Amino acid sequence: MNLRPRLVLLGKQGAGKGTQAVRLAAQYDIAHLSTGDLFRAQGKLGTEFGLKAKQYMDNGDLVPDEIVMGVIEECLAPGGTLAEGFVLDGFPRTRAQAEALEIVLDGRPIDIVIHLDVPRAIVVERLSERRVCVKNSGHIYSFSKPPADGHTCDKCGGEVVQREDDTPEAINRRLDTYERDTRPIREFYGSNDRPLVTIDGLGETDEVFARCCDAIDAVL
Ligand code: ADP
Question: Which atom of ligand 1 has the smallest separation from the CA of 61?
Fold first, then answer.
């Protein structure tokens, strides 16, 4: 039995992948990889890779597959940070990435792919209101539920800001990209006996978390 599962979270921007991934990583003692966080951190550090990725991200476009795979392959290789159990949040995001992931995993299959299902109108609302902690992207607030002093994270003291790609234009662009490039992954994982489960992403985060755990425990 595999007690440290290999998980993939799929779903639109704003579906709650980041929030659930942080909790799932703690619950199952597995590593959490958010490609968005990784790329943003590299952008802040000003590495060659980070600066290249930032150009795409600020426009709400996907970072090209070959750039993404270069980073991921290192993490997933034996001895890398994701060699044991993991939860992938924001990756794969294209069919080419999903196919490349299988090759990199080389006989260590994903245990379950969870699709967090939330209607577009709701995620547009959530993203427009979203405010995030710059120190820990799992610490999420909103325009209507800000931190106690309005701008400092209650949990870790980081600055709470609106993400540069949470403007109305970039949000719509990212969601269109999701429909075109990411939605087809669901068919990829839903076929050939790959373990795809769709979970209702509406409701309190505790409720959604309980649904995710039930689905994971059922396959472990
Ligand atoms: P969101 O899911 O709300 O777009 P993320 O933090 O997951 O937020 O990603 C932010 C941006 O990072 C994306 O819009 C995209 O430009 C880039 N990105 C993240 N993951 C990938 C990926 N797997 N492939 C290509 N681009 C990615």
Answer: 16
Long-range contacts of 198-203 (CB under 8 A, 24+ apart): 198/115, 198/117, 199/114, 199/115, 199/116, 199/117, 200/117, 201/11, 201/15, 201/16, 201/116, 201/117, 201/118, 202/118, 202/122
Secondary structure tally for the chain: helices H, strands E: 9, 8
Mean model confidence pLDDT for the chain: 92
Name residue 193's amino acid: D
Catalytic residue among 93, 126, 131, 211: 93
Residue 130 annotated among the catalytic residues of the structure? yes
54 a catalytic residue: no
Task: Report pLDDT digits (tens) over 6-51.
Answer: 999 999 999 999 999 999 999 999 999 999 999 999 998 999 989 9
Identify the residue whose C-alpha is closest to ligand 1 atom 18: 36
For residue 62, report the distance from its CA to the centre of ligand 1, in Å: 6
Q: What is the pTM of this model?
A: 0.92
Residue 10 Cβ inside 6 Å of ligand 1? The answer reads: no
User: What domains, with CATH codes, occur in the chain?
Assistant: 6-213 (3.40.50.300)
85-144 pLDDT, tens digit each: 999 999 999 999 999 999 998 888 899 999 999 999 999 999 999 999 999 888 899 999
